[in-house]
Amino acid sequence: MRVETDVLVIGSGAAGMYAAIEAARAGCRVFLIDRSLIGRGGATVMAQMTVAVALGAETPDHWSHHYQDTLTAGRGLCDEPLARLLCEAGPACINQLDAWGIGWARKDGHIAQAFAPGHDRPRCVYVDFLNTGPAVSKTLRGVINKTAGISRAGDLCVVDLATSHGEVTGAVAWHVGSGAPVTISAKATIVATGGLTRLYRRNSASANMGGDGYALALRANAPLIDMEFVQFFPIGHLAPRLIGMDPIMWDPFRYKLGGRLLNNKMEEFTDRYGVAEDGKYVITRDVGTYAILKEVEAGRGSPHGGAYLSFQHCSAEALREAFGPVIDRLAANGIDLMKMPIEVAPIAHYHMGGVAADVRMQTEVPGLLVAGEAVGGANGANRLSGNAITEALVFGQRAGITAAERVKAMRASAPADGHATLDLLRQDAPKNPPNTAEMVQSLQATMADDVGPLRTGAKLERALTRIGEFDAALGERPFGGKQAFDLSRLEWLDLRNMLTVARTVTQAALQRTESRGAHQREDFPGMVADWSVNQVVRRKGNRLDIAPARAAEMAAS
Questions:
Q1: Rounded-to-integer distance, Cα 548 and Cα 446, Å
Q2: What do you get for the CA distance between the two ends of the chain, in Å?
Q3: Centroid of chain to Cα 388
Q4: Regarding beta strands 167-175 and 354-355, do their DSSP bridges make them parallel or antiparallel, or are they unpaired?
Q5: pTM flag (> 0.90)
Q6: What is the number of other CB atoms lying within 10 angstroms of the CB of residue 448?
Q7: Catalytic residue list
Q8: Mean pLDDT, consecutive 10-residue segments, the chain of 557 residues?
Q9: d(CA 165, CA 184)
Q10: In this structure, are strands 224-225 and 307-310 parallel, antiparallel, or unpaired?
């Protein structure tokens, strides 16, 4: 199957949908594709909480204050032009969603804004504390449905970006529902495939976030940046068993009611790590993750290997007023917050790194743009709470505008050259291949155990050895057949990307001999001034070249 379009958008979370809307409104033919259902995969639809933006509705504010908080959270490594764009353009995107009918929560006639850790004032908007992401997705899907010029297709797993004379000219995909290869020619291609949290055993995102966009871009010769910085959400649910509810659901509880983080001696402990909460919620994610894991390491953890989160000091009326029927859903899971604490522990949640891009969302490779979490650099070594959806909206909007400008400036486009990828998909599968599902689980265990929040050189070296063994077992020929819904073939394609990305994260972490933000080296504690640089990953033949480059230098290039 062959498709021709002006703009190809890969990924249909908030970033991809916003990019498609902007490009179509500028008169382009847009093809929006996803390996899942359009607008229902990725991270946006799973996000519950808040969106950081300096509206100044609740408290006097300005984007420059949001910008300063973003730089502080990033521990000196933010790409400052990208961070400024995120903060400066955020309010317009929030107001546009308001005009599209999202239904932001209101207070006294204005959009309500909540306080979140790391911010200097109430700044985060929300629909409600458990459904903000789904509301963003639903709103953008509605606009997509009403916007002329946007074609959509799900069940398309992109195998490689197509190139011609050093430019990206589209992509080659594998249609999961039929087993057929699909070649897509495009004048501009936007990668909006989200992050890499599927690499980890415990993660908060959907199963299709295995770093596809990073691997696609790297194979197309676009550089990556800040790959060592994986953000772990400190209070992911651990125990008792919770069915049908999000593992990061405790964050909105802490937004509203504070909650006390306790060790197994029922002591508050965050003050030992530089942040005294005293029942409030002020600890940033990198420090919170570190504090919980160090308590566990010291033998003061909860029975399942985390910490306790207690709301027992809150009245039944306060809990019911804040969360209404959610309290009943918890009761159905055997959880009574008046009588018991729950156990929480860090869970892979977000990736600060990604594809290096400028403020127009252009990469070094002509024809290739990126948006949302696929973009690296804006958040430095640690993302500020609430910046993820803001980033998706702003960077998606900017990518769509830039793609349309490129299309209008082009007289003709080269057809997508996907012969090598088509040849790959046509190969016969090897006999007696390994179990791909087991390989995915083993890789996730390796990343969790050796490339998690607390790292050492020995652990990282061990992980690289295991990744090399997985690479050898995977081989160069796809497993499975060419029929519809062949999961072994899909998992081979997934593992091809996951192993590439796992290697970039691990190698970059091994080379950064300091502790900064989400990257904590037990053998190199503390930040080092000489490491106030970003690491850039490039593909050199069959190997990775990772070298330091300051954010300012990347922006200038």
A1: 26
A2: 38
A3: 8
A4: unpaired
A5: yes
A6: 17
A7: 285
A8: 95 97 98 91 79 93 98 97 98 97 94 92 88 93 97 96 94 94 96 96 86 97 98 94 82 85 96 89 90 96 96 91 85 91 95 98 98 97 95 98 97 76 88 93 97 97 98 94 88 97 98 97 96 96 88 47
A9: 17
A10: unpaired
